[in-house]
Structure formats: structure tokens, C-alpha cells
Amino acid sequence: MTAIEADVVIPPLPLTERGFGLHLGGTLKRGERLVYGSSALIVQREIKDVNKCSINPQHAYKVNVAKYSPNGEWICSGDDGGQCVVWAHESFVVKNEIEVGKRVLDVAWSGDQQKIFAVGAGKDDKGKVFPWNSNNKLGEISGASKSYITCDFKPNRPFKAIAGSEDFGVYFYGGTPMRFASFDKTHKNYVNCVRYSPDGAYYISVGSDKQILVFEGKEGKKIACN
Q: What torsion do the CA atoms of 55, 68, 210, 104 make, to the nearest 10 degrees?
């Protein structure tokens, strides 16, 4: 009898949800790779050869987001059960587990790789900043009246954080520990994504209202609207 051997692994695609954007993670460190959730799985795949992949079944619930650390060695993933897990991309060894609200929708690493910002749905605790290797809270994430959909960290010092919400707001946080600083309510619908520029000088927000806003990165002042 001839043995059957796997010749190639075709990884599943990410699952989409009506009305919500999809956050993909990626890195150019130690190979060009993408990472994302597909049902309760976390999929890593190479960009040049997409069938070179690894699949981690760490989560018990649907995985909404996964992001690489700045050095590409670690991944933080979040799921529909409110669980954030930090784990090694190659060995799958878990470094940290922390609960963030009832549902995690986006995560971001600080530029020094020491902190993680995670946001999502929940009554009170729908956003947290915490050390990458412990469950301590590094400040209070407040301001939004509804769930957060998206977040990001300023990639360099002085570190700032931003978040977008279902209440149409873009929220800006600063200080050590992190605390609410200001907000903008120009958007007329969900804020689907917020991201800093690589140099930290600016950040943008995009919404379901088809608007793109540009903000100054250190003080959070709006400087353009399209």
C-alpha cells in the first residue's frame, strides 16, 4: 500500500463580517509573512509562496485579529471571547493571556515592543493597554460610548495611542500611564480603521461614511479631511 503524504497545505482565507473591516497583520522580519484569523484558527503564510504556512489552533472562539511584534518574533491575537494571547510565531509557546472586554476586534504593539493596546466590545473594559508579558493595566482607556473597532500605537517616543469607535469618534490617548487626551467626532458613521504613519508624524482614520481624516501625530489635532 502506498502511503499518502501531504504535498502542499492550502490555508483557509480570513472570514469577513458584514459592516466591519478586516485587520491583517504582516511583517518583513525573518521573511515576508501575513497573519490573520480564520474561524478559531490563526494562519501565518508567506507572501511570495502563499502555500507555505502554519496554522495555530490556540483560540476557542473566532479570531478577529492577529498582529506581529515589531521584531516579527511574537504574535498577539484576539478573539470573540474577549481573549488576547501573546505567543511565539514559530514554536506557538504562549507568553501571555489577558481578557479584554467581551470581544477583541483590534490590537497594536508599541514601537519598543513592551506594550500592547487591545480594543473591542464590552460594557466597561472594552480597551486595555498592558505589558506584552504580564496582565498589568497601563492606564485607563475611556471616552467612547460604544464599542471600539480599531486602534494603533504611535511607533516612536513619546508613545501615544489612538482608537476608533462605533460611536463615530476618533480617540487620542497619551501619558504614562496612558489616559484619555482628546477626541474628534467628524465622522458620521463607524470609524473602521486608524493607523499611524511609519514616522509617527501623522495618523489617519477611515470610516463607513467614506471620509478620510488626517491628524497630527503628537497632539492629535485634525489637519485635513477628505
A: 70
